[in-house]
Amino acid sequence: MNAATSRRELAHPERTEIRLEGVLHALSDPLRLRIVRELAGADRELACSHFDLPVTKSTTTHHFRVLRESGVIRQVYRGTAKMSGLRGADLDALFPGLLGSVLEAADAQAGRLGGI
Amino acid sequence: MNAATSRRELAHPERTEIRLEGVLHALSDPLRLRIVRELAGADRELACSHFDLPVTKSTTTHHFRVLRESGVIRQVYRGTAKMSGLRGADLDALFPGLLGSVLEAADAQAGRLGGI
Lengths: 116, 116
What we know:
The structure is a homodimer.
Chain A: H1 2-7, H2 20-27, H3 30-42, E1 46-47, H4 57-70, E2 73-78, E3 81-86, H5 88-94, H6 98-113
């Protein structure tokens, strides 16, 4: 069981491997930005099934993978659920204030445009 | 002469048309980020010919167009030179602190990786 679990571990960049360009690219998609805003608002890990996105499951998986591979989120299996959480500490250590300013900008834009 | 000049005006989004996702996408490319850092450091308009980028002229033009169409820079013809300047006031009004935190993050990363 432990071996099987470890084989299901997902690849993540180390903190030192995270690149600003990759983080900005990950955040430049509306759905990925929405996922990040929900994770920031929840302030805890959320299951992928928590997110009700208007796209197919495979597209959803793709967006989570881009977020994970860029270092924005960490994903772990807990039982049968794939849980996702923001790598806020890593991002703040590398790029102080960046994630916060992007989240504030997203809130401001959603307020202006009437989005969520 | 005036008519000819006006026909050479380049298309820019109004402030209210600028979208966070587009700005983040524009900033997610290493060369475009480098252009923005140079413009921020110069704190004035610079001619495209000022930038010594390791790509073809058409690729350089493409990168400037992405920056202009996303609302990150403003480009105007002055005589025969195409001058580019950051739209810092527009971006700060829409997304307070965002551009500054991206520039600081880029500086921090360049310091870590030994880039410019």
